[in-house]
């Protein structure tokens, strides 16, 4: 009997030891590289190929009265395709057909992602968690998340520190419900505002875009793997924002030097900040699609910049190689071109999948390319801590999503993004004790029109419109009269007469016009999520901006301009507020309206932020990150075009209506005492630039000081001027602030005729001021030698 117990005890101990054994890839104490190699060695070809497939995620859960669980579609995808990632699992909008009713609240979202990860861990052979990627350019694109201004508004703050804080909030909210990868920032230079996605960009300048991109990456990622941090995906690599004719996804005409000196630097800055993922663009460059371009994906991104993350396709862009681009005859050939070029992950699951599997089995693709791609993805999964922490704490969701702190952040970003374009005779700020205020226009009280594209449905009470803001700002004795007047596009219900009556009876008329990216259920959508747009069809929606809504003109659509003209004709003071996603034609308003405020798409707290500016609770300091043209005939009209200087047209001059960097304040600033000191060394130099800015007005305020450089003589043609530094500082009335910048060889480098980077000796002019077309201080310095890289 004693022997029996001894044998039984030994067996129990042996069993416990087996259970306690940790496979190397699950051992968090091992180096990540070792864990990757161990897991790769255990995977079948089918599992490896499947790991590279990122499927559309919103059909991967089921929600009903019984609760939330994984769907049969997920189970089938895991069984048949061995998938490794999901995209937009928590997304809600008309394209996904997810609404406030059948979509997920934040708590439900956490339950859904936990159910998905539990299925992956418990029901698959190797227990590899999914990487859940979510749209997050101006807030997590999910019901209940905080909605910030779109990127063009974020850039208008000229405040990277604030944007980093905002990105940290977005990461916290996304992480709380199970997302570990945020799509954003968008680093495309927007130099043709006809392009439908201008609102998603940080504007036209590589330096400003790069600074904003770095801020977003730092805010998203922090230390990858930390709680409340997610990895960023940089979009769209590269030159996606300058399509010919403004056609979204169309071909671009950009040379190597322009790519290297203008379009690639924002991505390089974000990669050097640690970005862990990059998305390829739909377009081709010089005949080579970005999704199969080894020069971009391997030579530039990895070899030159040292990128260690993974590259993901845009939705269906691999299939585009044997589709729209017609550079591949078959799906297998398209998969071969992409994976060999350095593209790792397929957003769709149909670009790689069976095509890649067949290509490997037939010998068209070496398994080494698959292992390389899978290894890059697995590295990020391990770095994120997904194997150790695949689930989220559902009890913490309410403490991390849409908190009072996050709402306050949304209001602050919206405030700092507002650009005062014109303020003739100091019409603004308005008095809070006016007897009667008329608030007129299609964007006065339309909640979704102020949120921008890539926004999920939100409860109505959550969004603060301009009407809400005005009512909250004025005294209880002020009567606020609201008249819509017209729609953005639809002319069927225009009532200008009612708007005129309201203006005539008021002390001031606030007219809120512009555009809309509000997706609706009447619009049809392409497989990529872009809208189908047909000219000549009845205007049933306000949407004139957002993915797919390219423009042939930049005019205010519908009856908006007649509405504005009629209100101005009353003779009452008029303030124009624009809520829009791209620079629109404001020529008539600039000539006839005394005060113009631009808010872009200001997010959920935008109405309150606009009212803060209109009634003087906040002194505006936003600056334009993109030039506002007088006509599409001027395009491109970006300030930093290459030499020579543009000459005027017959109809009007070549200058934009409002230049890059423009923005007014309720106070005035004076620039003085520019000092420049250059110290040259053997390998580099330091040029210290210092100047003073004094608040000479009657109010405290912020100033955005800007430093521009002109390379006087160079071996290749350079821009007429180029932004190289900026800072936003608060200055009390009567006080002076000292601004300081440093330039090194990296700030002045060019791509020489020998196809090498260099900073050339010679003269450089420094321009300092509040905008690209207002630089009251100038000086020059000279470098006595060339500097190599």
UniProtKB/TrEMBL annotation:
Family: Belongs to the glycosyl hydrolase 3 family.
Protein's recorded name: Beta-glucosidase
UniProt keywords, alphabetically: Glycosidase, Hydrolase
Keyword Hydrolase in record: yes
Keyword Hydrolase: yes
Stretches assigned to the Fibronectin type III-like domain: 703-772
A single BP term in Gene Ontology: glucan catabolic process
SUPFAM superfamilies named among the record's database cross-references: (Trans)glycosidases (SSF51445), Beta-D-glucan exohydrolase, C-terminal domain (SSF52279)
Domain of life: Bacteria
Alphabetized GO MF terms: beta-glucosidase activity
